[in-house]
Amino acid sequence: MKREIITTADGSRSIRIPEMDENYHSSYGALQEANHVFIEHGLRAILKKNTIRIFEMGFGTGLNALLSAQEAIHLKKHIHYTGIEAFPVSVDMALSMNYEKFVTADVEAVFPALHLAEWGSEQHISPFFTLEKIQQKIEDYLPKTRSIDLVYYDAFGPSAQADMWNLNVLEKMADLLVPGGLFVTYCAKGQLKRDLKSLGFTVESLPGPPGKREMTRAWKG
Ligand SMILES: C[S@@+](CC[C@H](N)C(=O)[O-])C[C@H]1O[C@@H](n2cnc3c(N)ncnc32)[C@H](O)[C@@H]1O
């Protein structure tokens, strides 16, 4: 499938798949969206823990992992980050993203390290950030752990890839989380919220990033 690099409205790059008419991030700003949805309303909501285990559905360009690593390094908290990705971006393409310029100098080297890291095993990217990239379809993934504190649900939207939002996959996310764990996504569809409630989550609709009225955050009961 052909991928094109695009520049979003805040100057950060993203990837577009013309065949699907779908982008990896909001065209209003990849960086703004990632910071707002996943860092501000996800990671920062559970910072009381000293070690945080994150699971990302759709590792893609690694932007969410980079911003999470920056938080970990600055706050001196350990993050164990598992990213699942069925169709990895090539290292060359990933390294053409311009994300290093949006992080502090002490974190710049993390971005290439995320992409050069081997798939399928734990890699120590920094003393505060351990990464495990899994190349697999989420449908085939059998969770090894049920100790995840935070799920970043960053699949393509329901109109582009409805299968990623069905109850079976969402149930897998619920199973991964510890009680009190958090599920966060940019998507605000009513069906998603109803499904999360049916899985025992307490669901919140929060203001979305620029260009989007709402996003969804859900706490596992
Ligand atoms: C919205 S993009 C992810 C954006 C990514 N978090 C980033 O910051 O670049 C969705 C991602 O899900 C991946 N994906 C698509 N189908 C998948 C599947 N069945 N299982 C796992 N990953 C899948 C895509 O390849 C793509 O990287």
Describe the protein.
The chain has a single domain, classed as Rossmann fold, CATH 3.40.50. It contains six helices and eleven strands. The chain has helices spanning 30-40, 63-75, 91-95, 110-116, 167-176, 190-198, and strands at 4-7, 13-17, 22-23, 51-57, 78-84, 122-126, 129-134, 148-153, 177-185, 201-207, 214-220. It has an eight-stranded mixed beta sheet with strand order 6-7-5-4-8-9-11-10, sandwiched between helices. The protein has a three-stranded antiparallel beta sheet with strand order 1-2-3, with no helix packed on it. Helix 1 (30-40) crosses helix 2. The model has no long low-confidence stretch (mean pLDDT 97). It binds S-adenosylmethionine (SAM). S-adenosylmethionine binds at residues 24, 58, 60-61, 63-64, 84-87, 137-139, 154-156.
Q: What is the global morphology?
A: globular
Strand portion, in percent? 25-35%
Query: Which small-molecule ligands are present, each listed once?
Result: S-adenosylmethionine
Number of domains: 1
What is the string of SSEs from the N terminus onward?
A: EEEHEHEHHEEEHEHEE
Bin the helical content: 10-25%
CATH architectural group: 3-Layer(aba) Sandwich
Q: Mean pLDDT, rounded to whole units?
A: 97
Largest sheet: 8 strands, mixed
Q: Which features would summarize this protein structure in a list?
A:
three-stranded antiparallel sheet; globular; Rossmann fold; eight-stranded mixed sheet; 221 residues; 6 helices
